[in-house]
């Protein structure tokens, strides 16, 4: 048995960073790439992974120690520990019916594979890039560290959360009809069957991706990929190893959930978004730490299923990137339904109390006394996995936050290595990753292509939904861009009233000079679907007249976009706006 000294690797310009969390214990078996310690500087925090698998013989640091590159962290007895997922890793999804036959796998103990393009990561960006590159005639190797394709989004993110949100919507819609003449009994929630249905949805999509990969004759390797140099990646599977030699590479390794230091990770009541999606029972009281999109979506699910939900958000408002007037319908609804919504509030301490957790809050309006919860969801954001794939060994530049900078063709500083998705910058959204995946694949194929999208639309699939694209008022004010806005309230929409959901609003921002659309924000039922019209209008350079002259079906929610444009032009007939000019078109 060999004992290794595990030291702090190259962490860029960081020096004397503080150890704020020990993530392993002496005697613990750990996997390669499992996080060892969490360190923090005045700029950022980062997890330092283990370069090898083994058993921790002795920790050489303690909380509060300052470390730099080369500092000794621990002694590790090297053993034959299988490559495993990090405990609590939000990417740790497994399909019970998955098997190597789902993919094209090479069967030798250690193999050398050559390809035109290697794609590292099989999430929405990765599989889009791989499929597009294959369609353009390239020989592709797609590396995915988990047993199924689809990444976090498909397996433990976008898709399963939307399935549960649909279920929640059915429950709340049925309850909302009680004062309109239709009453149902209390719903019986079978979490086992609900989880099975959610997983069935996921399985259909992952099966489809496997079939598409096979049809394109893409070689899929399931294992952990690490660059060894600028033209080779080592892939370690559970039973096999490969050395993949490539002409070009696309890094699509995504992001991971941020952990708050000092919390009792490992306690069954403390979960991240992946744990919350498992739906292991319905907690009586639930605390959601983080009032962003992920936290509020899961809050909507658990509220509908019967939990008493509290939300704590450190910023001064929920979903801080959206304009406050568009957030108001959501805030009003959840304030009436949830046990509490605290903004400008942080959870200072989280302590174990048997099967429960006790939270101590700090902030204006926060409860003075600690509160006890049956489940606590930490949803405070995500950090890129830029340092998790050994890209620095290929000479790829990684910034202090873990992002990989790219140009408009998705190229890194190493011209034949590209990066897409969460790993190359905000916003961390699946549709942005897919868009960038196409660009990278086409650039490698020699096509004239580059990132030229004018906006990345954002949607919170809460109830009501919040959706926005282009400029927000806050951004326009900050940049000094002259604009006008026009707003149409949904309580004047016939379709919204027939749905019993007049609690929405549609807002357009447009240029003061020429009326061209600059941005849009919508709150209400199916706001995410309505936003696409405004996104297309922005990309095509449409102005208010273009929207107003487009006939919309009646009655429909899409009319609210039409009416908002007419409000701006002064031609609206579905509202009376005294003093507003009536210029006509």
From TrEMBL:
Keywords: Disulfide bond, FAD, Flavoprotein, Lipoyl, NAD, Oxidoreductase, Redox-active center. It catalyses: N(6)-[(R)-dihydrolipoyl]-L-lysyl-[protein] + NAD(+) = N(6)-[(R)-lipoyl]-L-lysyl-[protein] + NADH + H(+). Its EC number is 1.8.1.4. It holds the Pfam family Pyr_redox_2. Its cofactor is FAD; (R)-lipoate. GO terms for molecular function: dihydrolipoyl dehydrogenase (NADH) activity. Binds 1 FAD per subunit. Residues 3-77 form the Lipoyl-binding domain. NCBIfam families: lipoamide_DH. Belongs to the class-I pyridine nucleotide-disulfide oxidoreductase family. The active site is a redox-active disulfide bond. This is Dihydrolipoyl dehydrogenase.
């Amino acid at each position: 048995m060999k004992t290794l000294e595990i030291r702090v690797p190259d962490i860029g310009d960081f020096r004397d960073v503080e150890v704020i969390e020990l993530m392993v214990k002496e005697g613990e078996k750990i996997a390669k790439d499992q996080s060892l310690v969490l360190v923090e500087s005045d700029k950022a925090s980062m997890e330092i992974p283990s370069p090898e698998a083994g058993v921790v013989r002795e920790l050489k640091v303690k909380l509060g120690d300052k470390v730099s590159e080369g500092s000794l962290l621990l002694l590790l007895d090297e053993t034959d520990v299988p490559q495993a997922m990090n405990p609590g890793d939000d990417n740790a999804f497994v399909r019970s019916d998955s098997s190597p036959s789902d993919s094209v796998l090479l069967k030798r103990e250690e193999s050398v594979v050559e390809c035109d393009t290697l794609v590292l990561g099989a999430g929405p960006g990765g599989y889009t890039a791989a499929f597009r590159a294959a369609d353009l005639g390239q020989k592709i190797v797609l590396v995915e560290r988990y047993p199924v394709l689809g990444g976090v989004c498909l397996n433990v993110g976008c898709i399963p959360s939307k399935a549960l949100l649909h279920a929640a919507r059915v429950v709340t819609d049925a309850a909302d009809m009680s004062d309109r003449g239709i009453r149902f009994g209390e719903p019986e929630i079978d979490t086992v069957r609900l989880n099975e249905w959610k997983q069935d949805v996921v399985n259909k999509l992952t099966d489809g991706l496997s079939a598409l990969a096979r049809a394109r004759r893409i070689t899929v390797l399931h294992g952990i990929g690490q660059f060894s140099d600028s033209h080779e990646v080592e892939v370690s599977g559970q039973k096999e190893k490969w050395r993949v030699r490539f002409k070009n590479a696309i890094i699509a390794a995504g992001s991971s959930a941020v952990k708050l230091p000092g919390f009792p990770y490992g306690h069954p009541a403390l979960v991240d978004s992946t744990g919350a999606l498992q739906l292991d029972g319905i907690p009586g009281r639930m605390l959601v730490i983080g009032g962003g999109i992920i936290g509020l979506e899961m809050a909507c699910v658990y509220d509908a299923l019967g939990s008493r939900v509290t939300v704590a958000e450190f910023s001064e408002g929920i979903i801080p990137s959206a304009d406050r007037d568009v957030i108001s319908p959501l805030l009003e609804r959840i304030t009436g339904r949830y046990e509490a919504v605290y903004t400008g509030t942080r959870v200072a301490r989280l302590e174990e109390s048997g099967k429960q957790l006790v939270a101590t809050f700090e902030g204006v309006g926060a409860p003075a006394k600690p509160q006890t919860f049956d489940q606590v969801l930490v949803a405070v954001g995500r950090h890129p996995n830029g340092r998790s794939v050994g890209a620095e060994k290929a000479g790829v530049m990684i910034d202090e936050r873990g992002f990989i900078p790219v140009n408009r063709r998705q190229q890194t500083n190493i011209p034949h290595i590209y990066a897409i998705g969460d790993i190359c910058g905000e916003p961390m959204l699946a549709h942005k990753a897919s868009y960038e995946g196409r660009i990278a694949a086409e650039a490698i194929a020699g096509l004239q292509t580059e990132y030229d999208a004018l906006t990345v639309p954002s949607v919170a699939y809460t109830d009501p939904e919040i959706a926005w694209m282009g400029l927000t008022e806050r951004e326009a004010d900050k940049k000094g861009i002259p604009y006008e806005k026009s707003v149409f309230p949904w309580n004047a929409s016939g379709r919204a009233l027939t749905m019993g959901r007049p609690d929405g609003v549609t807002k357009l921002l447009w240029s003061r000079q020429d009326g061209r659309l600059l941005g849009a924000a919508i709150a209400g039922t199916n706001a995410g679907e309505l936003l696409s019209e405004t996104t297309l209008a922005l990309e095509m350079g449409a102005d208010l007249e273009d929207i107003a002259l487009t006939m919309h079906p009646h009655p429909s929610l899409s009319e609210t976009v039409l009416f908002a444009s007419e409000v701006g032009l002064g031609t609206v007939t579905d509202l009376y706006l005294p003093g507003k000019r009536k210029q006509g078109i």
